[in-house]
């Protein structure tokens, strides 16, 4: 084996807590089972006591099995002594008993190494959770005081908007909250694609749609599709700003209107009091909003709906979304006159004073 290859292999072992010397001892024990510590010491060209220390370490890592002292109960590996009855005897105890030295055995690497890696993976998972939780909060808090300018990043142009949005959704761990309205910098179809990818990973989405956004061609259909995937969608006549909040720690907020095109800009806000405030804005809008509705996802009972037709259910859903007459007629392919007649009939059946209230009342009654 070349020195370069040997160095790379040694680095692999060190990643799971095995030193270069311990690796050599383990290999010697694998190649010469039953030889015992003294023979292995000669094989690696080191002293017996140092090899015994390495065997202690390897036993603790689950790579070597040491004989147990007779008559003692089971104990933790590598910690033999009067205070731990039943622990395996350390290699140093074997010098007076050559027969028992021969009982020291390297464990099958296909089992031992896999178990060793699994234990380290569990430790890495715990460290990752610590890094993304407590340590990240400490870092953000310190950065807020020492370098407050780093809490904000300016994003310029539609392409960079799309890149950042996709990255935010890919990094989301549990929830994304969105205030959605037109005009759009990122194509709504792309937005839905990024959202679908995140939802397949188990990330939940809550979105408040403004009427203006749902009147954009295909946007209502996209919103319904996201609802069928598990998004919680609500609607308001208008929202005060476009907003994305990811996991209560990062927010994306426009700085300029999308009409600026390539020059449209937004700010990415990292965890701070500002992200908390933006989250509170979303929650206020969410409490005020009405359910979006998912017409076509199920057929309400005749008792509950008073024998609503499919078209009437669709009209109520679009009313709850706040769409204008022209937008609804385009969706349904009917005339404005027919639409207004049916809206009047539905308002009377619901006891509603207005078209938007008719949609809201229908949603509350479970009609849509």
UniProtKB/TrEMBL annotation:
Compositionally biased tracts (Low complexity): 67-77
InterPro entries referenced in this protein's UniProt entry, alphabetically: Sig_transdc_resp-reg_C-effctor (IPR016032), TrmB-like (IPR051797), Tscrpt_reg_LuxR_C (IPR000792), WH-like_DNA-bd_sf (IPR036388)
GO biological process per UniProt: regulation of DNA-templated transcription
Region of interest called Disordered, as start-end residue ranges on this chain: 62-100
Protein name as annotated: Helix-turn-helix transcriptional regulator
Organismal lineage: Bacteria, Bacillati, Actinomycetota, Actinomycetes, Kitasatosporales
Domain of life (superkingdom): Bacteria
HTH luxR-type domain residues: 301-366
Organism whose genome encodes this protein: Streptomyces armeniacus
Gene3D superfamilies assigned: Winged helix-like DNA-binding domain superfamily/Winged helix DNA-binding domain
Gene Ontology molecular function, alphabetical: DNA binding
